[in-house]
Amino acid sequence: MISVKELRRTFGPIVAVDDISFDVAKGEVLGFLGPNGAGKTTAMRMLACFLAPDSGTATVCGHDIIAEPVAVRESIGYLAENAPAYGEMTVAGFLNFICDARRIAGKAKKEALDRIVPMCAVGSVYHQTIDTLSKGYRRRVGLAQALIHDPDVLILDEPTDGLDPNQKHEVRLLINKMAKDKCIIVSTHILEEVEEVCTRTIIIASGKILVDSTPALLKEKYHCSLDEVFRKVTRTKKSA
Length: 240
Prior knowledge:
The chain is an alpha/beta fold.
């Protein structure tokens, strides 16, 4: 469902993403890992058509990110690292606005809201303005807007950031529940989360893919925990 071909993006002299290629199929949950500044968020922004590549391309559900950006956006649910929202809106108003932007109307809108509000556990704050919410609830609202149109592909940048342990557990269960019917990319620094929800792991540093394997195979290959694998792989790159 996602096919990335030699994707590259620079910011002046800085190479953020350096000719990366990979595929993600339906039923896969890809853990996209790397140290800060590795290029993860830039890569996901390009896949979500929020940022244009300098070269290379990618397809999402068969749609090219350069030639068919609107079709790509219709196919994905994207939770940004700092998901934007309108603070003066209530949660209800914001999710209704997202439905309108997604052209979900009438009975379909009611069904979407009835499904997503309990799914993301935002019922208790449904009539509060977003600027009064805790960081955890704002994150839930961000997740709700990414899921409201039931997309085939999910791109989730730090989906459990700001959530308490119970909320993290609920989001991980939700990802596992959705996994078999969707193609999901999850960026996170929580390696315990990778082991719980991801079927595959890519580690990126300095814009390049260093590792593409499964969490279990990585632990077996390096004879250590995933945390230690991450440190070994990224430190080797840094010192190279």
